[in-house]
Amino acid sequence: MKRSEINAIMADADAFMKAHGFNLPPFAYWTPEDWSTRGDEVQEIVDRQLGWDITDFGSGDYARVGLFIFTLRNGDPANLAKGGGKLYAEKVLVVDPDQVTPFHFHWRKVEDFINRGGGKLVMQLYNSTPDEGFADTPVTVSVDGVRRTLPAGGSLVLNPGESISLPSGLYHKFWAAESRVLVGEVSLVNDDNTDNRFYEPVGRFPEVVEDEPPLHLLCTDYPRYYHPAKS
Ligand SMILES: [Fe+2]
Protein backbone atom coordinates (compact mmCIF):
# COMPACT_ATOMS: atom_id res chain seq x y z
CA MET A 1 0.00 0.00 0.00
CA LYS A 2 1.14 3.55 -0.61
CA ARG A 3 1.76 5.65 2.51
CA SER A 4 -0.50 8.33 1.03
CA GLU A 5 -3.36 5.81 0.92
CA ILE A 6 -2.68 4.71 4.52
CA ASN A 7 -2.62 8.35 5.69
CA ALA A 8 -5.93 9.05 3.96
CA ILE A 9 -7.54 5.92 5.47
CA MET A 10 -6.34 6.97 8.95
CA ALA A 11 -7.81 10.46 8.67
CA ASP A 12 -11.08 9.16 7.23
CA ALA A 13 -11.51 6.39 9.85
CA ASP A 14 -10.61 8.80 12.67
CA ALA A 15 -13.36 11.20 11.55
CA PHE A 16 -15.84 8.29 11.32
CA MET A 17 -14.98 7.08 14.83
CA LYS A 18 -15.24 10.58 16.28
CA ALA A 19 -18.63 11.03 14.58
CA HIS A 20 -19.74 7.92 16.53
CA GLY A 21 -18.36 9.33 19.78
CA PHE A 22 -15.43 6.93 19.83
CA ASN A 23 -12.18 8.66 20.76
CA LEU A 24 -8.70 7.20 20.49
CA PRO A 25 -6.00 7.50 23.18
CA PRO A 26 -3.32 10.22 22.93
CA PHE A 27 -0.61 7.99 21.44
CA ALA A 28 -2.76 7.61 18.33
CA TYR A 29 -1.88 11.17 17.40
CA TRP A 30 1.86 11.15 18.01
CA THR A 31 3.86 12.13 14.96
CA PRO A 32 6.91 10.22 13.69
CA GLU A 33 9.00 12.99 15.27
CA ASP A 34 7.26 12.43 18.62
CA TRP A 35 8.09 8.74 18.40
CA SER A 36 11.74 9.44 17.75
CA THR A 37 12.00 11.26 21.13
CA ARG A 38 10.17 8.69 23.28
CA GLY A 39 11.97 6.58 25.84
CA ASP A 40 11.34 3.15 27.28
CA GLU A 41 8.22 4.38 29.11
CA VAL A 42 6.29 3.60 25.91
CA GLN A 43 7.72 0.10 25.47
CA GLU A 44 4.35 -1.52 26.16
CA ILE A 45 2.85 0.16 23.07
CA VAL A 46 5.65 -1.27 20.94
CA ASP A 47 5.82 -4.74 22.50
CA ARG A 48 2.07 -5.29 22.38
CA GLN A 49 1.75 -3.78 18.86
CA LEU A 50 -0.85 -1.25 20.01
CA GLY A 51 -2.05 1.41 17.61
CA TRP A 52 -2.84 1.85 13.94
CA ASP A 53 -2.99 -1.33 11.87
CA ILE A 54 -4.28 -0.88 8.33
CA THR A 55 -3.99 -3.75 5.90
CA ASP A 56 -5.03 -4.82 2.43
CA PHE A 57 -3.96 -8.41 3.23
CA GLY A 58 -1.62 -8.13 0.26
CA SER A 59 -4.54 -7.76 -2.14
CA GLY A 60 -3.54 -4.41 -3.60
CA ASP A 61 -7.23 -3.43 -3.36
CA TYR A 62 -8.05 -2.18 0.16
CA ALA A 63 -11.64 -1.31 -0.75
CA ARG A 64 -12.37 -4.95 -1.68
CA VAL A 65 -10.07 -6.92 0.67
CA GLY A 66 -8.82 -4.92 3.62
CA LEU A 67 -9.38 -3.88 7.20
CA PHE A 68 -8.87 -0.85 9.39
CA ILE A 69 -7.81 -1.75 12.94
CA PHE A 70 -6.68 0.25 15.94
CA THR A 71 -5.45 -1.90 18.83
CA LEU A 72 -6.33 -0.18 22.10
CA ARG A 73 -4.96 -2.74 24.57
CA ASN A 74 -3.33 -6.14 24.51
CA GLY A 75 -1.73 -8.45 27.03
CA ASP A 76 1.51 -10.40 26.81
CA PRO A 77 0.79 -13.87 25.37
CA ALA A 78 3.19 -15.21 28.03
CA ASN A 79 0.51 -14.35 30.60
CA LEU A 80 -1.58 -17.26 29.27
CA ALA A 81 0.96 -19.76 30.52
CA LYS A 82 1.16 -17.91 33.84
CA GLY A 83 -2.63 -17.89 34.15
CA GLY A 84 -2.75 -14.28 35.31
CA GLY A 85 -2.09 -10.67 34.45
CA LYS A 86 -3.53 -8.98 31.39
CA LEU A 87 -5.07 -11.79 29.36
CA TYR A 88 -7.27 -9.64 27.14
CA ALA A 89 -7.17 -7.34 24.14
CA GLU A 90 -9.43 -4.70 22.63
CA LYS A 91 -9.49 -3.34 19.10
CA VAL A 92 -11.71 -1.01 17.15
CA LEU A 93 -12.32 -1.80 13.48
CA VAL A 94 -13.85 0.15 10.63
CA VAL A 95 -15.41 -2.08 7.97
CA ASP A 96 -16.77 -0.79 4.67
CA PRO A 97 -19.57 -2.30 2.57
CA ASP A 98 -18.32 -5.38 0.69
CA GLN A 99 -14.82 -4.88 2.10
CA VAL A 100 -13.84 -8.42 3.03
CA THR A 101 -11.58 -9.72 5.77
CA PRO A 102 -10.71 -13.18 4.36
CA PHE A 103 -11.44 -16.50 6.07
CA HIS A 104 -9.17 -17.22 9.00
CA PHE A 105 -9.26 -18.72 12.45
CA HIS A 106 -7.13 -18.37 15.56
CA TRP A 107 -5.53 -21.33 17.27
CA ARG A 108 -5.74 -19.61 20.65
CA LYS A 109 -7.63 -16.33 20.53
CA VAL A 110 -11.32 -16.25 21.41
CA GLU A 111 -12.88 -13.03 20.15
CA ASP A 112 -16.13 -11.14 20.31
CA PHE A 113 -17.15 -8.75 17.55
CA ILE A 114 -19.58 -5.99 18.49
CA ASN A 115 -21.43 -3.83 15.99
CA ARG A 116 -21.04 -0.42 17.67
CA GLY A 117 -22.94 1.50 15.01
CA GLY A 118 -23.36 2.29 11.34
CA GLY A 119 -24.47 -0.41 8.90
CA LYS A 120 -24.73 -4.17 9.28
CA LEU A 121 -21.81 -6.53 9.91
CA VAL A 122 -22.06 -9.82 8.02
CA MET A 123 -20.10 -12.80 9.30
CA GLN A 124 -19.68 -16.10 7.42
CA LEU A 125 -18.58 -19.14 9.43
CA TYR A 126 -17.19 -22.66 9.06
CA ASN A 127 -15.89 -25.04 11.67
CA SER A 128 -12.35 -26.16 10.85
CA THR A 129 -11.27 -29.74 10.28
CA PRO A 130 -8.20 -31.25 12.00
CA ASP A 131 -6.19 -30.53 8.83
CA GLU A 132 -7.43 -26.88 8.84
CA GLY A 133 -9.94 -27.16 6.02
CA PHE A 134 -13.62 -26.24 6.05
CA ALA A 135 -15.78 -28.74 7.97
CA ASP A 136 -19.27 -29.56 6.71
CA THR A 137 -20.69 -29.59 10.24
CA PRO A 138 -23.20 -27.04 11.58
CA VAL A 139 -21.72 -24.04 13.37
CA THR A 140 -22.90 -23.08 16.84
CA VAL A 141 -22.11 -19.62 18.18
CA SER A 142 -23.30 -17.27 20.90
CA VAL A 143 -24.96 -14.05 19.72
CA ASP A 144 -25.37 -11.83 22.78
CA GLY A 145 -25.79 -14.86 25.00
CA VAL A 146 -28.25 -16.57 22.66
CA ARG A 147 -27.04 -19.82 21.12
CA ARG A 148 -27.46 -19.90 17.33
CA THR A 149 -26.78 -22.80 14.98
CA LEU A 150 -26.02 -22.18 11.30
CA PRO A 151 -25.29 -24.59 8.45
CA ALA A 152 -21.62 -24.94 7.43
CA GLY A 153 -20.63 -21.77 5.60
CA GLY A 154 -23.72 -19.94 6.81
CA SER A 155 -23.78 -16.21 7.42
CA LEU A 156 -25.36 -14.09 10.07
CA VAL A 157 -25.97 -10.37 10.23
CA LEU A 158 -25.15 -8.23 13.24
CA ASN A 159 -27.14 -5.02 13.51
CA PRO A 160 -25.91 -2.09 15.61
CA GLY A 161 -25.73 -3.19 19.25
CA GLU A 162 -25.43 -6.89 18.43
CA SER A 163 -22.33 -9.00 19.05
CA ILE A 164 -21.01 -12.48 18.38
CA SER A 165 -18.54 -14.59 20.30
CA LEU A 166 -16.19 -16.68 18.14
CA PRO A 167 -14.41 -19.64 19.71
CA SER A 168 -10.89 -20.54 18.64
CA GLY A 169 -10.67 -22.78 15.58
CA LEU A 170 -13.78 -21.28 13.95
CA TYR A 171 -13.20 -19.92 10.43
CA HIS A 172 -14.66 -16.43 9.99
CA LYS A 173 -14.89 -13.99 7.13
CA PHE A 174 -16.67 -10.66 7.46
CA TRP A 175 -17.71 -7.54 5.62
CA ALA A 176 -20.21 -4.71 6.03
CA ALA A 177 -23.57 -4.34 4.32
CA GLU A 178 -25.46 -1.14 3.53
CA SER A 179 -22.94 1.25 5.07
CA ARG A 180 -19.70 1.54 7.01
CA VAL A 181 -19.67 -0.14 10.43
CA LEU A 182 -17.83 0.72 13.62
CA VAL A 183 -16.86 -2.62 15.14
CA GLY A 184 -15.47 -3.40 18.56
CA GLU A 185 -13.33 -6.46 19.14
CA VAL A 186 -12.84 -7.80 22.66
CA SER A 187 -10.67 -10.89 22.88
CA LEU A 188 -8.13 -13.03 24.58
CA VAL A 189 -4.59 -11.67 24.11
CA ASN A 190 -3.76 -11.08 20.47
CA ASP A 191 -0.65 -12.31 18.69
CA ASP A 192 -0.82 -11.57 14.97
CA ASN A 193 2.59 -13.11 14.40
CA THR A 194 1.70 -16.63 15.53
CA ASP A 195 -2.05 -17.02 16.05
CA ASN A 196 -3.66 -16.43 12.64
CA ARG A 197 -4.51 -19.29 10.29
CA PHE A 198 -5.75 -17.82 6.98
CA TYR A 199 -7.58 -20.29 4.72
CA GLU A 200 -5.76 -18.88 1.73
CA PRO A 201 -2.33 -17.36 2.30
CA VAL A 202 -2.45 -13.57 2.71
CA GLY A 203 -0.08 -10.87 3.86
CA ARG A 204 -1.28 -9.90 7.33
CA PHE A 205 0.68 -6.63 7.26
CA PRO A 206 1.11 -4.56 4.08
CA GLU A 207 4.27 -3.67 2.23
CA VAL A 208 4.37 0.12 2.38
CA VAL A 209 5.53 2.32 -0.51
CA GLU A 210 6.79 5.57 1.04
CA ASP A 211 5.40 8.21 -1.31
CA GLU A 212 4.88 10.76 1.49
CA PRO A 213 5.71 11.01 5.23
CA PRO A 214 3.57 9.02 7.68
CA LEU A 215 0.77 10.99 9.34
CA HIS A 216 0.96 8.57 12.30
CA LEU A 217 2.91 5.35 12.61
CA LEU A 218 1.46 1.91 11.94
CA CYS A 219 2.26 -0.61 14.66
CA THR A 220 4.69 -2.19 12.21
CA ASP A 221 6.54 1.14 11.77
CA TYR A 222 7.76 1.42 15.36
CA PRO A 223 11.13 -0.32 14.84
CA ARG A 224 12.03 2.25 12.17
CA TYR A 225 11.26 5.34 14.25
CA TYR A 226 11.46 4.34 17.91
CA HIS A 227 14.96 3.99 19.34
CA PRO A 228 14.89 4.50 23.10
CA ALA A 229 18.23 5.27 24.73
CA LYS A 230 19.61 2.24 26.54
CA SER A 231 19.69 2.92 30.27
FE1 LIG B 1 -10.25 -13.11 13.70
How are the SSEs ordered, and which strands pair?
Elements (H helix, E strand, L loop, with lengths): L2 H17 L12 H5 L6 H5 L3 E5 L11 E8 L3 H5 L5 E8 L5 E6 L4 E17 L11 E5 L2 E5 L4 E4 L4 E4 L3 E19 L7 E3 L23 H4 L6
Antiparallel strand pairs: 1-2, 2-3, 3-10, 4-10, 4-11, 5-8, 5-9, 5-10, 6-7, 6-9
Write up what this structure looks like:
- The chain has 231 residues and is of the alpha+beta class.
- The protein has a single domain (3-225), classed as Jelly Rolls.
- It has helices at 3-19, 32-36, 43-47, 78-82, 222-225, and strands at 51-55, 67-74, 88-95, 101-106, 111-127, 139-143, 146-150, 155-158, 163-166, 170-188, 196-198.
- Strands 1, 2, 3, 4, 5, 6, 7, 8, 9, 10 and 11 form an eleven-stranded antiparallel β-sheet that branches.
- Bound molecules: fe (ii) ion.
- The site of fe (ii) ion (FE2) has 4 residues, from β4.
TL;DR of this structure?
This protein is of the alpha+beta class and 231 residues long. It is 16% helix and 36% strand.
Could you name the key traits of this structure?
231 residues; alpha+beta; Jelly Rolls; binds fe (ii) ion
Number of helices: 5
* Beta-strand percent range: 35-45%
User: What would you report as the Rg, rounded to the nearest angstrom?
Assistant: 18 Å
Rounded mean pLDDT is 96
Number of strands: 11
List low-confidence stretches.
none
Broad CATH class = Mainly Beta
CATH architecture: Sandwich
CATH fold-level name = Jelly Rolls
